[in-house]
Write a structure and sequence with these properties.
Layout (H helix, E strand, L loop, with lengths): L4 E5 L3 H10 L4 E5 L2 H10 L4 E5 L8 H11 L5 E5 L4 H7 L8 E4 L4 H14 L2 H40 L8 H8 L3 H13 L18
Parallel strand pairs: 1-2, 1-3, 3-4, 4-5
Length: 214
């Protein structure tokens, strides 16, 4: 089975050796600067990126976050640093070009391994797929809800028309609302729609009750 590739952007040799031991089950690729990382991603997109903040050549990992997300928008990024302020960490985890996780140094390697496992399983392509599935479910639910409301309204209006079409008295809106289990304004709107469609005569719903529909 092919190992998941993780791009580790880290300039410190000792820190990288710790990552090698902790993440030995993965295919690790290393970059020591942000610019080198961009070149590697352009050739092969990894499954996950582990991004250190303080890098070689004066690079700051956080500065490269937007470019990394531009090249690999669906790849989860774990930002690692002991130099970021709380507000910087919060900012890194927000917005469309964000990191998924932010871990502090000295890093808990057991915590790192768990975070990597969760990120690979829950984030990236699967996260995007779940988002599309949720959107489709939402659309279906909305459509079913709207269809149900429309069906209920038409059924109520049909029964309402039968009750008032031959009546010589003006309709008792309050009584009809209670009978159908809806608000007075709903009955008034139903009567107005029936009049617009020519199913009942306009005089059935006289001027006296127009203010109730406001």
């Amino acid at each position: 089975m092919k190992k998941s590739q993780i791009l580790i952007i880290e300039d410190d040799d000792l820190q990288y050796e710790l990552y090698e031991d902790a993440l030995a089950e993965y295919d690790l690729v290393r970059a020591t600067s942000g610019s080198e990382a961009l070149l590697k991603i352009a050739k092969t997109v990894p499954r996950l990126i582990l991004l250190d903040h303080i890098l070689d050549q004066g690079d700051l990992g956080l500065d490269y976050l937007p470019e990394l997300k531009e090249l690999a928008p669906h790849v989860p990024i774990i930002l690692v640093s002991g130099a970021l302020e709380v507000q910087q960490q919060i900012g890194a985890l927000q917005g469309p070009r964000r990191a998924h996780y932010c871990l502090s140094k000295p890093i808990d390697l057991h915590g790192l391994v768990r975070t990597v496992e969760v990120a690979l399983h829950e984030c990236g392509d699967r996260e995007v797929l779940r988002g599309f599935e949720a959107l489709e479910r939402s659309k279906r639910i909305d459509a079913e809800f709207l269809f149900s409301r429309s069906t209920d309204r038409l059924s109520r209006q049909s029964e309402l028309r039968k009750q008032v079409v031959n009546s010589k008295d003006r309709p008792n809106v309050s009584a009809l609302a209670r009978a159908f289990g809806v608000a007075r304004k709903t009955i008034i709107r139903d009567l107005q729609e029936l009049i617009r469609r020519g199913e009942i005569k306009p005089e059935i719903f006289p001027k006296w009750d127009q203010e109730d529909s406001q």
